[in-house]
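Minutes, project check-in
Item: structure for the 119-residue chain
Input as provided by the requester:
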Amino acid sequence: MSKQPTLTKADLIEEVLRVTELPRKESESIVETIFDSIIQSLQKGDKIEIRGFGSFRTRQRRGRTGRNPKTGEKVDVPAKRIPFFKPSKELKDFVNSEEAASMTAAAEAAAAAGETHRS
């Protein structure tokens, strides 16, 4: 079983760099600004909605009594907010479409070709 490819922040910066042909520092700034804006909005309790992609919001998780796995001792786990992402119907449909499957196969083939050249 092969390892599933992972898109990183560095990959996103490279893509912005490639598409916009902006200098690296500006591309980094664009990606950082987007992530910072999402984080700040979630911290304030705002909902972020990106049409055709999905929405981010926070959910409240109730406090509960847990157990320390080593000692079995009861531990109070406080209530907290957690980030939650809900994909749009368009994103779900695209991920499950034939076009997405062919793009994934092409990406895996390109990654395999890149690995053979590095040896």
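Outcome recorded: Residues 47-87 form a domain with the HU Protein; Chain A fold (CATH 4.10.520.10).
No further action items on this chain.
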